[in-house]
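Practice set, problem 2.
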Amino acid sequence: MTIDSSTLSQARTAALKASQAFIPTATSLVSYQSSGKLLIIGTVDQAIPLAKQLSLYLECAIILPEHSPNDYVQMSAIPMTRGKVQKISGYLGHYYVELMVNNQAYNPAILFNGHHEFIDLILDLTEPPHLKQEIFPVGYYAPNGNEAIVAALLQELPDMMGQFDKPKFFNYDPNICAHGRSGQVGCTLCLTACPTEAIQSQGEHIAVNPHLCQGAGSCTSVCPTGALTYNYPSLADTLNQLRQLLSTFFEHGGEQARVIFYSRDKAESMAELTNLLPPYFLPFAVAEIGSVGIDLMLSTLAYGAQQIILLSDDQTTPMVIDVLNKQCSYIQPLLTAMGYPVAMVKLQLWQNDLMQLSTHLQEPVILPNIKRVTYAGLNEKRTLLRLAITHLYQQAKQHPSEVALPQGAPFGEIQVDVLRCTLCMACVSQCPCAALSDGGEVPLLKFNESACVQCGLCQASCPEEAITLSARYLFSSELRMTPRIINETQPFHCIDCGKPFATQLMINRMQSKLKDHWMFQGDGIRKLQMCENCRVKVMFNEQA
């Protein structure tokens, strides 16, 4: 039965009203403090005219290129110097600039009254800018030759004084982070996905600078464990708001729901676009489109949406677009394997021609009706993925046992070359997710696929290079969650006391590597066949 457009329109209106009434959980704030010290970096022709205008509102200083005429520096009423910028780091109210002047390091913050260490604001007029990240820190402006941006900055910069607050966008749980162990590097997905360069490696864990983070969300999407989660709104809040949107739509007679995810700062344009679309299209604002990962996408389908559209915009950076493409590439094989059309998940680039964009969004496609789940949102990524995929699998036409996934997907197994593996258990001690375990007194290696996030720490730590990663999804919960033996052998017993202490392969490997060592010549080779206690006894007897 086809629902008339009037009913669908009323359903959408009710759904959007219910969604907009949702109040997310409050979060902590990140504060910036600016006293209006502005450093302008550029040529004489660029910097001085702007400094004269902005000095009416801000305390300005200028850095000119190192070969600029010296008379400007000596005669200007605005503090300035010449030099080569070596480094810029920091954020609004806390910028540190390192300048080379006559082959000596120089901090231009001393140009300002009071000889401060840090600078509040930077206007970088060089082309290209000194900073290279896709999203600049708050308080760093680089128009890159765009005069329209320069004109806008003349209006914006005078207001950049005082205290500024923003939400803390992320939560980080180091206890489930798979970045590193014992000097080995595993997962680096968040490091390569952050367009602000706010994330740094700190040995076994990572550190996120909350003042540099601007909530792009791509780090939370790629994190395989859920160690990094979006904090405002939280994943649970986002899912509960989404569930409210869809349930209200269906309760008011709606059907064939298609959810369009878009960044909140595009709200005005999205309202215009929504009016051009049929009423089964439901716009859903997120803080940033990069925060929509596979957990949110699959949960949306489980909540009853027939299609998900990720709508990027002109501010979405290439790094975030790449993350979204990869997230879609992980979902598409899952959908195909279960007999669902890949069109259920679609990444659509923004177009300023809204009529043309609406036409692209309405491309005809046959989409299935799926029984909806009603469970509440969670902040546990792996649990959400398991629940959503299990539900979609139960509703699917096809029920394969497994499906191969692209490299980088957060599911899979490891394959062990049993001819190389000595069962030294280095991989067990390194695994951050307890996917690997030993057999206690019995030399065997067990693997729990449900816990594996394909971080690669086991592979990096294996001294025999016996481990390879294999991304896939095993649909059977029982097989996925039951530890299985992936290598085992008989224990090697001490030739003196009979204690099991190693494996035959490990002893063979040690004998091969140490056969030319002076300590293990002749009968000395027998020491390698003894447990640690018996070996010590023999060595003491030899010295007596």
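Problem 2, part (b): a different protein.
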Amino acid sequence: MKNFILSLIALILNLSLIFAQTVDNKKCGSDIVHKWRLEHEVGYAESYEKLKNYVADFVAKHPNGYSPKSIITIPVVFHVVLSPTEHSSFLDLRCIENIGTLNTDYSGTNTHSMSDFPASLKANCDIQFCLATIDTSGAATSGIERRDYIGPDWATGDNGVKQTATGGFDAWDPTKYLNIWVCNLEYGMLGYATYPTVLDNFYGLVIDYTATGTTGALPPYDLGGTASHEIGHCLYLSHIWGDSPGCTNDDGFSDTPIQDIASYGAPTGVIFDDCQTTSPGIMYMNFMDYSDDIAYANFTPDQKL
């Protein structure tokens, strides 16, 4: 048992070092976590490949789009794990605000510019979010739970924040709730999420408290865009450039232009790159890019699927 624990500690330290070396200039750590799981987690690669093939087949069978018979409502629980000082400045209002921006972004009613892209590429995803009102025991809840935490900032992919025993909060049933952990992430990371390969107790998203909600959030990530981006990963959306540079990589959707690398800042107008040399250019306003919140505008119809 002692050797096992020592090996586990060494693995965690090594994982943290890998993350520290690769998060530079990143907003999102989902691809880092995904790559690590592909290489180290038994069965993950097979599960991901099955999911990938299923989505590709579904998109191919619905070339004209797909709409469910009714809007899907997803109950959300925020697990807030912060120091007492951080708690004092992080009001419940921040979580409530983020629910509002999620509903705007996923309903296609975000008013930000699409540049030269047609309005038809701003999809209503037929998803709405609400704070959970009933907890796992059937009792009334605000959908927000808090816990004081005194310790180092959380590393990308550190599941400690997702476990009560290690200072965080256990997930609520991931088949009934969307779990969002709010904490202080290290190295300036804004968030990370897990793909829906298995709806286990680590499924959900983690976002830095400074990029949650609007009131008191830090610009340029103060319009709720981080949660919209990370939930995209929870719903099996890749980064728009396909998670690796170059014009031979893709995110798997035909209505998002192939893009070389991530976009940063707040682009406006038509932007070209090595892959897109004519108008309308790259889709930097897509929620699965890295643009600032003010530039985010859309999910496409294929991404909606």
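Answer key, part (b): Confidence is low (pLDDT under 50) at residues 1-23. Helices lie at 2-22, 30-40, 44-61, 84-89, 92-106, 225-234, 301-304.
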